[in-house]
Amino acid sequence: MFEATTILAYKGQEQAVIGGDGQVTFGNAVLKGNATKIRKLYKDQILAGFAGSTADAFNLFDMFEGHLESCKGDLLKAVIAFSKEWRKDKVLRRLEAMMIVLNKKHIFILSGNGDVVEPEDGSIAAIGSGGNFAISAARALAKHSDLKPIDLVKESLMIAGDLCIYTNHNIKILEIED
Question: Which annotated residues bind Na(+) (predicted)?
Fold first, then answer.
C-alpha cells in the first residue's frame, strides 16, 4: 500500500468522524510532520480523507466536490459518478491514491480502480500505510470500550502512530454531529 499516511473514519449513530496523521514521507525521510489530509466538503455535511500525493489529493477532492454539488449533496450518487470519472480518466486512474468519504448515513472507500467499498460493518474504514493498524485498534476499542467516536478515532490513530513508521502522532480530527 502507500508509504504515506493513515486515515481512519468512524460512523456512529449520531456522529461521523474522520482523522488523519500529519506525516509526509519522501523516501526514507520525513518531509513534513503537520500536513492536513482530511477536510469537510459540501456545506460541512461530508467528511473526506486522502492517502496519496498532495497534488493528487487537491485534484481529486475538487473533482469529488464537483460531483457532490451536481448531486446536491447525495453522497451515494456522488460516489458512483466520481468513481466512474476517476476510473475513465487515463491519468487519474493510475494514481496510487485512495479516499474515504462519509456522512452520518454512509461510509465509502474509493480508489482509481473504480472501487467503491462500503465497509462490512458499515461503520469503520481506514486507508494508508498505517490503515490496518488503525482499523484493528478501532474495532477492538469499539467492541470493548465506551469511548466517544472522536476519542476512538484519536486513540486508534495514536496506536497506528506507535506501530507504523509512516504515521506520526500529529493527529487532526473532523466530525459531523446531529
Answer: 161, 164, 167
**Cell numbers for 32:** 513534513
Q: Is 167 annotated as a binding residue?
A: yes
Domain that includes residue 54, residue range: 2-171
Residue listed under C-alpha cell 462519509: 102
108-129, pLDDT tens digit by residue? Answer: 999 877 889 999 999 999 999 9
Tell me how crowded residue 173 is: count the other CB atoms within 10 A of its CB. 17
Is 6 labeled as catalytic in the residue annotation?
no
Q: Spot the catalytic one: 5, 6, 25, 54.
A: 5
Whether 137 is in a domain gets the answer yes
- Summarised one tens digit per residue, pLDDT across range 40-53 is 999 999 999 998 87
Using CA atoms, how far apart are residues 130 and 85, in angstroms rounded to an integer?
28
* The total number of structural domains that make up the chain: 1
Instruction: Sheet with 46-51: list strands edge to edge.
Output: 38-41, 46-51, 98-102, 107-111, 116-117
Distance CA 110, CA 106 (A): 13
Is 54 annotated as a binding-site member?
Answer: no
Total-model pTM = 0.94
Whole-angstrom Cα distance, residue 18 to residue 138?
12
